[in-house]
């Protein structure tokens, strides 16, 4: 079975019970994706599969045959940060940082969803620019927990990245 991770092709022939999360971390050395609850409740393990956010602890590696997976390592680097990552830095959108990779993957998907017409309103005065309310962002990001409670800064970072 083969899959693409961050644009690179990988072959998987391991235990079919291996979660995507364990494969990414232990099989591929992509430790940016974090294991929190391992039960689909915290969002720390969020990655993108074909652009959709997925809790990688809840899906099997073998189910990703032919799919394109993006982890935090594929979104940006220290030298070339994605604008969303730069906004997290600017707004202190983290404290311990453990949830941050999942927050950013989730927010990237949410921003794409909004751009594709999910947003409940589009302002008239900003020439069609998509603007989300804090409540909309909170609702759409509710699957990603931050034990440090940096939620308001996370929202500020996402709002800046969307402008
Ligand atoms: Fe997957 Fe918590 S580790 S949701």
From TrEMBL:
InterPro entries for this protein: 2Fe-2S-bd, 2Fe-2S-bd_dom_sf, 2Fe-2S_ferredoxin-like_sf, 2Fe-2S_ferredoxin-type, 2Fe2S_fd_BS, Aldehyde_Oxdr_Iron-Sulfur, Beta-grasp_dom_sf
Key words, A-Z: Iron, Metal-binding, Oxidoreductase
Record flagged with keyword Metal-binding: yes
Keyword Metal-binding tagged: yes
Name recorded for this polypeptide: 2Fe-2S iron-sulfur cluster-binding protein
PROSITE patterns, per database record: 2FE2S_FER_1, 2FE2S_FER_2
Species annotation: Novosphingobium kalidii
Domain 2Fe-2S ferredoxin-type intervals: 1-75
């Amino acid at each position: 079975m083969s899959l693409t991770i961050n644009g690179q092709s990988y072959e998987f022939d391991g235990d079919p019970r291996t979660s995507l999360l364990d494969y990414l971390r232990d099989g591929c050395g992509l430790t940016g994706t974090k294991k929190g609850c391992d039960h689909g409740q915290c969002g720390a393990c969020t990655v993108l599969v074909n652009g959709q956010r997925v809790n990688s602890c809840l899906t099997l590696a073998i189910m990703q045959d032919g799919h394109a997976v993006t982890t935090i390592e594929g979104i940006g680097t220290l030298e070339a940060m994605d604008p969303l990552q730069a906004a997290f830095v600017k707004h202190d959108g983290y404290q311990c940082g453990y949830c941050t990779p999942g927050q950013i993957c989730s927010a990237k998907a949410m921003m794409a969803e909004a751009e594709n017409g999910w947003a409940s309103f589009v302002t008239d005065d900003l020439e069609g620019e998509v603007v989300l309310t804090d409540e909309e962002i909170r609702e759409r990001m509710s699957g990603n927990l931050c034990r440090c409670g940096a939620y308001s800064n996370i929202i500020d970072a996402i709002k800046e990245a969307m402008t």
